Amino acid sequence: MFNPNMLKVYFIAGSQDVPNHDLNEVVEEALKTGITMFQFREKGPNSKTGIEKENLAKSLLSLCRRYDIPFIVNDDVSLAIKINADGIHVGQDDRKISSFKDDFQNKIIGLSVANIEEYNQSEIENVDYIGTGPIHSTISKQDAGVHGGYKLVETLRQYDNVIPIVAIGGITEQDVMPLIDAGANGVSVISAIAQSENIEQTVKGFHKHYKKF
Ligand code: TZP
Ligand code: MG
């Protein structure tokens, strides 16, 4: 079952984000040191497909289970169902949530929502949290669009004061306080953790900022 605290340090990655490392090792280090949710986003140049993608998903899922951290699959609804993942994260251009929501009862459904227009065209009632961004410019998604700063979160939070919001896009630990102030429940990151030289220090660094509240 979903709990907004799961959004605090939400790590997203696929093998393409760690070209010189084994993703299993990177994710295990992140799990050990305190990430609160993990999303498998195997996507874009140099990503795996087919059975290779499925096998990687299965090994990451079993790692997450060992640390009791939710394992979310990006976009690939059939893979998420097949391996019994803890949830799915979809974008505005993906399948309609009502078409698969019955398969995710008691699981987690996340949706990317960047602005009020997207919010209004979304099935928010079927969603556990929204991912909002890009906050800053990002190297991890080629078509991320124009970055909108903390204002993106502020605008959506003013419009809906209940829906859990996780911010995304170029986020580092310095962004935690201003994003929480803007109304976010947490932050999601790829490169801050995937490219970190010291994952323990990075993950703990994110948590340190929440302790100031
Ligand atoms: N969606 C909007 S920005 C982004 C995604 C998946 C990439 C976030 O990666 P990073 O490295 O934390 O900027
Ligand atoms: Mg998508």
What topology does this entry show?
Elements: E1 9-13, H1 23-33, E2 37-40, H2 50-66, E3 71-74, H3 77-83, E4 87-90, E5 108-112, H4 116-120, E6 129-132, H5 151-159, E7 165-168, H6 176-182, E8 186-189, H7 191-194, H8 199-210
Parallel strand pairs: 1-2, 1-8, 2-3, 3-4, 4-5, 5-6, 6-7, 7-8
Helix pairs in contact: 1-2, 1-8
The protein binds 4-methyl-5-hydroxyethylthiazole phosphate (TZP) and magnesium ion.
Q: According to CATH, what is the topology?
A: TIM Barrel
- Portion of residues within helices: 25-40%
Determine the number of helices (DSSP H or I, runs of at least 4 residues).
8
CATH architecture field:
Alpha-Beta Barrel
Q: Which strand order does the major sheet show?
A: 1-2-3-4-5-6-7-8
The distinct ligands, each listed once, are: 4-methyl-5-hydroxyethylthiazole phosphate, magnesium ion
Biggest β-sheet strands, sense, barrel:
8 strands, parallel, barrel
Would you identify the regions where 5 or more consecutive residues have pLDDT less than 50? none
User: How much beta, percentage-wise?
Assistant: 15-25%
- Secondary-structure element series: EHEHEHEEHEHEHEHH
Shape field: globular
Q: Please, what is the CATH homologous superfamily? A: Aldolase class I
Question: Which class of secondary structure composition applies to the elements?
Answer: alpha/beta
Query: What is the CATH class designation?
Result: Alpha Beta
